Structure formats: structure tokens, C-alpha cells
Amino acid sequence: MTERDEHAIELLLNEPEIRAWLEPDDDGGDDDEPPRRSDDLLGRPLRHGEVRAVMGVFERLSDRSRRLRFNGAKPCLTRAELRELATVGGDRHALVAFLRGDERPVAIARLVRDGDEAEVAFAVADEYQRRGIGSALGAELVADARAAGISEINAHVASDNHAAVALLRRIANVFETCFEGTELSIRASIA
């Protein structure tokens, strides 16, 4: 990340609207849910408005990883995108992962529920890809979704994102894959 990028992020994090999101949330929600641990991987629910965790993972993605995750060039997140990605509660759920010895988040997995279905998305920091972190976090997300009564997940994936397709096949029973423009639309059962 360039010095200019760091400065832009710092400016964004200092905006009053974003700063309000950084304040502790005392709404009686389940922010105190204990983290999930597997060896050196620590996963926990993303707290509502936790923009630093979202930015922490985004900053660790290469241009290629950002393109694969967002299905197009994504040099930075807009204020609205950051707000949306940091919004949890109701029909939006996300898990964030850390590794022992690394203070910054290494991955994030999220779902947005629509009835008994949910759209899912994953991002793993480049330096930690191909180590099973996405699969572990995805399996936890699917377990949470199943417990909440969700029976089907879907994802829109860049057609050359073979890792995401493989991840979805590992954590769910893919029953439909089709092209929508340059993207793959994947539907899978988790029941």
C-alpha cells in the first residue's frame, strides 16, 4: 500500500460518520460472542460498523485478489461500500479471522440472507491464501447459516476465480453453475 493510500484510509477513518461506527456498540446485541479457535486461526463475528477489520483485510489484498473478490477493478472502497461491508445484524452476518502472531485480520467471510437463501462472499489476504483459511471460515459461516434456517447459498464469482469455486464446492453441495455475463453464478445446498 502506498503512503497516499494510507493517508486516504486515515482520512476516511477520521470522518465523523465513520468514527461513530468505530465507537463501541452498546445495543445489547451479541457482540460478546466468544471467538472460535482452530489451532492458530481465530475466527469471530464481525461487530456492526467494524470498519477497521474490513479495511484491514481489504488492504492486504492484491489488485488481482480485489478484482476476483469484487468482480472488477477495485483500487479502494467508497464510503458507501465500506459502510455496507461493515454492516451486520438482521439479515447480514460476517466472520473475521486472525492468526496467532498477526494483529491484523487475515480473512473475512460474509453472508446476506434473503429468506431461506443467502449470498456469500469471501476474502483472504494474499500472503495467507491456499492454507485452508477460506475453507475454515466458510465452513463456520455455513454452519451459522444452517443453524439460522438457511438451506441454500449463492455466490457471484469471477469466471477465472478457481479458488472461490473450489472453496464453495468444499463447503456446500453445488447444484447449479451458470454464466451471467463474465461472472459465474453458483447455487449450492447447505441443508
Description of the structure:
This protein has a single domain (3-25, 34-189), classed as Gcn5-related N-acetyltransferase (GNAT) (Aminopeptidase), CATH 3.40.630.30. The chain has seven helices and eight strands; from the N terminus they run ααββαααβββαβαββ. It has helices at residues 3-14, 16-22, 51-59, 63-70, 79-85, 133-147, 162-171; strands spanning 36-38, 41-45, 92-99, 102-114, 117-124, 152-158, 173-180, 183-189. It has an eight-stranded mixed sheet. A hairpin with a 2-residue loop joins β1 and β2. α6 (133-147) crosses α7 (162-171). Residues 5-9 and 11-37 have low confidence and may be disordered.
What percent strand? 25-35%
What is the fold-level CATH name, i.e. the topology?
Answer: Aminopeptidase
Total domain count: 1
- CATH homologous superfamily label: Gcn5-related N-acetyltransferase (GNAT)
Order of adjacent strands in the largest pleated sheet: 1-2-3-4-5-6-8-7
* CATH arch. level architecture: 3-Layer(aba) Sandwich
Q: Summarize the biggest pleated sheet.
A: 8 strands, mixed
The mean pLDDT is 83
Radius of gyration: 16 Å
The helix content is 25-40%
Low-confidence stretches: 5-9, 11-37
Helix/strand order, N-terminal first: HHEEHHHEEEHEHEE
How many beta-strand segments? 8
Question: How many helical elements?
Answer: 7
What overall form do the CA principal axes indicate? globular
